[in-house]
Structure prediction request, 332 residues.
Amino acid sequence: MNYRTFGKTGWQVSEIGFGGWAIGAAKWGTQDDQESLKALHRALDLGVTFIDTAQAYGNGHSERLISQALKERGEKIGNGKVRVATKIPPVPGNWPPFPEDRIEERFPEEYLREKVEYSLKNMDAEVLDVVQLHTWTRAWNRKLVALDVLQDLKKEGKLLAVGVSTPEHDQNSLIEPMRQGKLDAVQVIYNIFEQEPRAEFLPVAEENGVGIIVRVVFDEGSLTGKFDINTTFEKDDFRNLYFKGDRLQDTVKRVEKIKQTITKFGFSESDLPSIAIRFALQHSAVSTVIPGIRNVDQAEKNCTVSDLAVLPTELYEKLQKHIWRRGFWYAG
Ligand SMILES: NC(=O)c1ccc[n+]([C@@H]2O[C@H](COP(=O)([O-])OP(=O)(O)OC[C@H]3O[C@@H](n4cnc5c(N)ncnc54)[C@H](OP(=O)(O)O)[C@@H]3O)[C@@H](O)[C@H]2O)c1
Prediction:
């Protein structure tokens, strides 16, 4: 496992981290806690030192499992060897927030303070490594009060780094707060389809020493190459919505073209998951890529990618041509 500097914090974090949404056992079909714990342990055995979670992943369930796994290994939770990034959801309402939504109503100070205490309790920690707001709107760039509250909580010793996770439809909205020095970390979608962050987002992050956490590197599974047009998901799997209607068909068609590209370079189709991760790692602004991991096999396949060679430049450039400006999936 290779390690990268996490922005201005100076932390060295594993370039492959653990995406902890599915282990929250909500919105991803059946998920067994014992399997999740085994996956966490395997990833940690393989050198993972960065884990992403959120209060919303099973009402704190993902946070609690991560804490359990770390405790079982005698690892300190909060300012320890393994860094855990969590997220605070906004007060219930529009998701993503509407331009008219007021930041003081969706992320009020008292609420943020309570939610930080909630994560500290869930993880049985004295300090949180990274606290991210789970979503954002560009409308809030004129009044960054919630970020100021989190920065105050940092000074008070409750957390070590302040972050935001981008809204899918307008990831560039976080560029301005990064420039203003209000953010230690940002979580962004960056993969073989969603390549827009290379234009300005990633360079700005690098210029301002912001730790970059790359999420959804597999486009929720499609970029592993394992779906076909007949793929179905369990009833409560959110991917029924994500790949609704003709989206799965459109996606599979494009993934087939990506497979054709990689096989021309001597790779096999089964190398696609590792190539998808390596594609994201190729950008120097990226601190860690957090593929979602829900079992030991995925922990092994994903965490060992760090030991593979960087992608040949020519293949990297060919993959750039597979950019897909499909817009905001959830909108309809
Ligand atoms: N708004 C936000 O802040 C936000 C939103 C989304 C995600 N996230 C974070 O980012 C992380 C990553 O995103 P994600 O989990 O949604 O999507 P992802 O990383 O694109 O896809 C993860 C899914 O792909 C499948 N998979 C993983 N490794 C595989 C492999 N080697 N071969 C085949 N299939 C594999 C697994 O599901 P199956 O086995 O069921 O196919 C896994 O749950 C999340 O876990 C979460 O921590 C944050």
